[in-house]
Amino acid sequence: MLDRSSTPLNALLRRRRPGHSLEAPFYTSPEIFAADIEAIFERTWVFVGVEPDVPEPGDALTVDIGANAILIVRDDDMAVRAFHNVCRHRGARLVHDEKTTVGNLVCRYHSWTYNLDGDLIHAEHMGGDFDPKCHGLKPVHVRSLEGLIFICLADEPPEDFAEMERAMAPYIAPHHLRDTKIAFQSDLIEEGNWKLVMENNRECYHCGANHPELTVPLFAHGFGFAPEELDEAERAEADRYAALVRSSHAEWEAAGIPSRMQEHLDDRISGFRTERLPLDGDGESHTMDTKAACRLPLGPFSSAKMGGLHFWTQPNSWHHFMGDHVVTFSAIPLSAGQTRVRTTWLVHKDAVEGVDYDLANLIEVWTATNAQDAELVGFCQKGAQSRAYEPGPYSPHTEMLVEKFCRWYIQRMSEHFDVARAAA
Q1: First to last CA, the chain
Q2: What average pLDDT does range 27-47 have in this prediction?
Q3: Residue ranges of domains in the chain, CATH in brackets
Q4: Cα 101 to Cα 210: distance, rounded to the nearest angstrom
Q5: Which of 44, 294, 22 is nearest to 176 (CA)?
Q6: Residue 2 pLDDT > 50
Q7: What's the confidence (pLDDT) of residue 420?
Q8: 49-62 CB burial, b ≥16 within 10 A, e <16
Q9: How many other C-beta atoms are found inside a 10 Å radius of the C-beta of residue 293?
Q10: Can you tell me the distance from the alpha carbon of 61 to that of 113, in angstroms, rounded to the nearest whole number?
Q11: Are 339 and 333 in contact (CB under 8 A)?
Q12: Which residues are paired to 373 by β-bridges?
């Protein structure tokens, strides 16, 4: 465990002011970044990809979590497995490509060879006393939630993943994620701390002024507003939206499609939130004309107007499931001031680009939104480095979920480093 006796982390955790953003070192300190990796990313369930990232036996995906190199493979029985991407001989990295296809896993250094179950099956010149059974790849805990792949680096991972899975599987299953393919995948390096990336995602206070594309399919009142500030026309629109949510939920759930909100962002280690919300306009998908981007639906839906199911997980993901496509997002911290955001667009596995979907139309809304968010996160990162920065108050109407993220983060860090919170 990292020694915190000579750092301000303990004091910062104890004096965190509820309802306000975090103090600057949480966003700028390399030492606190290392503590984040230790307490958060090496202890919780982290979203790293989707099963269509490794669709066939031998397909492999690599991801780095801090200094930890992880390898995710599809084995010959079609199971998804995860291992430390480290040869058991002298520690060389086994797979160097982000995505590849292998027969066996062969270390380039001395040709130690492992099968897709992680067993060492070939190691020359090791002598008669050498037991290959003692030198298999070190496994990493891996779970697939209806096709969403999560890993945990802890020896004993949080058990409450099962609770999230029981709650969420009925919501996600109708979209048949395992029967999709990746239409497009992009990586964006945001110049900001991973917590700023997540805080930005957990509110839409900024959406009206910054996301003209996103606010075409999404209602302005979907993620909070101050009722006392609405004029008569705005109040009528808010009332119309609330009525549409109620009627849509009733209709979808009557058809066997779970839709109502479930929220456990700050009361579980494996925190999550979900709700299926109606879309504006024609209400079919996250596109500029709000119509479906792909001609082939993902499931046996009775209508193209299935809204958008959002699913957020702590610490690092958010997802949108529509009737015609899915968009997944992962935020992987790279340094105190950089975060990799990976966005993956998925369509029905039989869909043909240029026939069943137009790629530019499919990715337009979130490509623009991601770039806008990256710029905003960069602004905040630069601001946190200024001597003028101090924690500002959250809006109780539109940033309540940001507060829940920060509360979850402070709780995880405090528990890991055994910090007693000061009385508020």
Answers
A1: 28
A2: 98
A3: 145-413 (3.90.380.10)
A4: 40
A5: 294
A6: no
A7: 60
A8: bbbbbbeebbbbbb
A9: 27
A10: 18
A11: yes
A12: none
Q: How many angstroms separate the CA atoms of 263 and 54, rounded? A: 30
Residue type, 152: C
Q: Which amino acid is at 374?
A: A
Three-state DSSP string of the chain: CCCCCCCCHHHHHHCCCCCECCCCHHHHCHHHHHHHHHHHHCCCCEEEEEHHHCCCCCEEEEEEECCEEEEEEECCCCCEEEEECECCCCCCECCCCCEEECCCEECCCCCCEECCCCCEEECCCCCCCCCHHHCCCCECEEEEECCEEEEECCCCCCCCHHHHHHHHHHHHHHHCHHHEEEEEEEEEEECCCHHHHHHHHCCCCCHHHHCCCCCCCCCCCCCCCCHHHCCHHHHHHHHHHHHHHHHHHHHHHHCCCCCCCEEECCCCCCCEEEEEECCCCCCCCCCCCCCCCECCCCCCCCCCCCCEEEEEECCCEEEEECCCCEEEEEEEEEECCEEEEEEEEEEECCCCECCCECHHHHHHHHHHHHHHHHHHHHHHHHHHCCCCCCCCECCCCCCHHHHHHHHHHHHHHHHHCCCCCCCC
Listed residue (64, 86, 62) closest to 72, CA to CA: 62
Rounded Cα distance between 366 and 280, Å, is 16
Residue 236 has a pLDDT of: 85
Under 8 Å CB-to-CB from 243, ≥6 apart: which residues?
Answer: none
β-sheet with 148-152: strand ranges across: 46-50, 148-152, 141-145
pLDDT in tens, 206-224: 998 999 999 999 886 666 7
What is the CB neighbour count within 10 angstroms for residue 421? Answer: 12
Average pLDDT, the chain: 94
Select from 398, 393, 20, 392 the least CA-distant residue to 230.
398
